[in-house]
Amino acid sequence: MIAGNEFKQRRKRLTRRMKKNSVAILPSAEVAVRNRDVEWPYRQHSDFHYLTGFDEPEAVAVLAPGRPEGEFILFCREFDATKAIWTGKHAGLEGAVDNHGADQACPVGRLAELLPGLLENRERVYYPVGASAELDGQIRHAINEIRAKSRSGTQAPTEFIVIDKLLHEHRLFKSEAELALIRRAAEISAQAHVRAMRFCRPGIHEYEIEAEFLHEITRHGLRAQAYPAIVAGGNNACVLHYTGNSDVLRDGDLLLIDAGAECDSYAADITRTYPVNGHFSEPQRLLYELVLAAQLAAIDTIKPGKRWNDPHDTAVKVLTKGLVELGLLKGKVGKLIKDEAYKPYYMHRTGHWLGMDVHDVGEYRDDDGEWRKLEPGMVMTVEPGLYIDAACDDVDPQWRGIGIRIEDDVVVTESGCEILTGAVPKAVADIEALMGESR
């Protein structure tokens, strides 16, 4: 859990970087309806959670630096004893102050009434412009109300700034408390991957593998996946975001499982690929060890001062050279890379930021348009792959229908990087040994 004082420090850090005489406004996530009167499990918007730790819908946070009555105003639902009988306890106005650090709590139904007073005589407003039609409308209405009183000397804000970039730069660098949650998500996800690997065998369905993964994370108290699991046997692995998870696993095929748990809103993201029957065929092993070599080389490049794109460039170089050696590409490695000749087999990038969102926020380039330099506290994935679809009739049949991806989560440290998901075997011998134990 993140301590309340850390949320307070996050708000202070944000307001210190805002221009003078500004106010920030953030809405909570809306409840999503699954069908008719059934709702999806509620997940708070990551930005809202990051600043408040308040995980209820129908809420708006206002940060008003210098306001005598309080700088953090939380608009939320009042406590409703009848509602609590049906859906459980909720904070109410008192809980918003006592448990979530609000200086002042107001009924969310009064936002339209009180917003003009919070905005008047402020020069600018930071908020997620265009993300919420309702909030856009409320701010527009408040501005018009203030303008209507202009002859009395009241001024309306004249500048509206998308808050995302300012806030997301903060989120990119993880605190020790955040890293602890990511490590927990990674640890439990790793155990779930090992469980799935042991369970795997010909004749079962992809969804049975998914069930093993879900069982393991759930029994440790992690009730949500960070994203829908990809459990792709055989040629299904060549569909990068395959989530059907319904086919039977066949003897002689590989299984790619890309799955991660979420711990208190922080994600893990792990991919492993292994033989359904526990033993790699020679073509499978050759391609697999090429992807693994690319991943290990990419991880070795990660340290402060390196550019974001360095791991990707390294992986591409290793993969392209290997594809030439295996006869899947022909030509000089440098020119093949320049021509992106590898892209039919490797069409995605080698990683992404990781945090509260599995594809986490944060700029990949600096203000000069250069790939940004890596710094301690950044968390990222490293996930090269190779995908040779069964329909690739211009390659030797031995390679067709093989999809491989290997993904780990790493945090940039002062001297290099720490692999957070190394507990899941990925060397050929280690995978075959583990899978052999259950046979």
Task: Please describe what this structure looks like.
With 439 residues, this protein is an alpha+beta fold. It has two domains: 4-171, Creatinase/prolidase N-terminal domain (Creatine Amidinohydrolase, Chain A, domain 1), CATH 3.40.350; 173-437, Creatine Amidinohydrolase. It has helices spanning 4-17, 46-52, 81-87, 92-98, 111-119, 133-148, 164-172, 176-199, 206-219, 282-300, 310-325, 333-338, 428-437, and strands at 22-27, 33-35, 38-39, 60-63, 72-76, 104-107, 124-127, 159-162, 224-225, 230-233, 254-259, 261-263, 266-267, 270-275, 379-382, 385-388, 402-405, 408-412, 417-419. The strands form six sheets. It has a six-stranded mixed sheet, with helices on both faces. A three-stranded antiparallel sheet has the order 9-12-13. The two termini are 40 Å apart.
Break the fold down into its secondary structure elements and pairings.
Layout: H1 4-17, E1 22-27, E2 33-35, E3 38-39, H2 46-52, E4 60-63, E5 72-76, H3 81-87, H4 92-98, E6 104-107, H5 111-119, E7 124-127, H6 133-148, E8 159-162, H7 164-172, H8 176-199, H9 206-219, E9 224-225, E10 230-233, E11 254-259, E12 261-263, E13 266-267, E14 270-275, H10 282-300, H11 310-325, H12 333-338, E15 379-382, E16 385-388, E17 402-405, E18 408-412, E19 417-419, H13 428-437
Parallel strand pairs: 1-7, 5-6, 7-8
Antiparallel strand pairs: 1-4, 2-3, 4-5, 9-12, 10-11, 11-14, 12-13, 15-18, 16-17, 18-19
